[in-house]
Amino acid sequence: MGQAIPESYDTEASAEGPRGCPGLTCGLLWLCPAAGITCPAYEILLSQLKNMAKRDFLNSFMTDQGLNLPHLNDTCKRSSDFLVTETLKDLPPVTFLQTVSQNLRHVVQILKEPVFEAMNIYLQGIDNNVCCMLQKLPPAPTACPAPGSKRTLSPTPTVGSFSWKLERCKVIQSYQRFMEAVGKVLETWGPSPGQRNRNRRSLLNVLLGQRRKVRAG
């Protein structure tokens, strides 16, 4: 049986991370379920994912790479997204989490340069939390999506070049918009597996009731 991580554990206080997960930082609390560590409670996982989805990487990257100038800021932040967000809210919970996992792995695959090591560790931590969530959803535990074949990526500009900086800036921006959409979906999830937020259900009931009145009138 796997060993549970104590709730007080915080990798910000330890550069070593949980046993079997050396070197993990960035304040991730629940990592590496595949390493034999028991996943925490669903409610804790949900709270963690909501918070982790808000993490900003774009501003620090732009500052470090000298892109925090007005015209460059607009070029980066107005870029088109390569991660689809429109349909996320309509997906069943299991499909939703599997889609999140697949997209996180895609971003890690793109941001393969050493400068993104800390960000990739963070994204892998989110992915591990997603895998834990999949084990908690009814009607039965679902495995995390198996690693697929690596996608064919377009040629990468020379690392450190201006075009490389802009390209990576756009990838990070797309990731953050995607995670913003993910966070909005998670806000509708209740504290128990498979439960939806009561406020959302109440609003839905009101709208359905109004529709019935219109039809009856």
Automatic annotation (TrEMBL):
<dbReference type="GO" id="GO:0005147">
    <property type="term" value="F:oncostatin-M receptor binding"/>
</dbReference>
<dbReference type="GO" id="GO:0005615">
    <property type="term" value="C:extracellular space"/>
</dbReference>
<keyword id="KW-0964">Secreted</keyword>
<dbReference type="Pfam" id="PF01291">
    <property type="entry name" value="LIF_OSM"/>
</dbReference>
<protein>
    <submittedName>
        <fullName>Oncostatin-M isoform X1</fullName>
    </submittedName>
</protein>
<dbReference type="InterPro" id="IPR001581">
    <property type="entry name" value="Leukemia_IF/oncostatin"/>
</dbReference>
<dbReference type="GO" id="GO:0005125">
    <property type="term" value="F:cytokine activity"/>
</dbReference>
<dbReference type="InterPro" id="IPR039578">
    <property type="entry name" value="OSM"/>
</dbReference>
<dbReference type="GO" id="GO:0006955">
    <property type="term" value="P:immune response"/>
</dbReference>
<keyword id="KW-0202">Cytokine</keyword>
<dbReference type="InterPro" id="IPR009079">
    <property type="entry name" value="4_helix_cytokine-like_core"/>
</dbReference>
<dbReference type="GO" id="GO:0038165">
    <property type="term" value="P:oncostatin-M-mediated signaling pathway"/>
</dbReference>
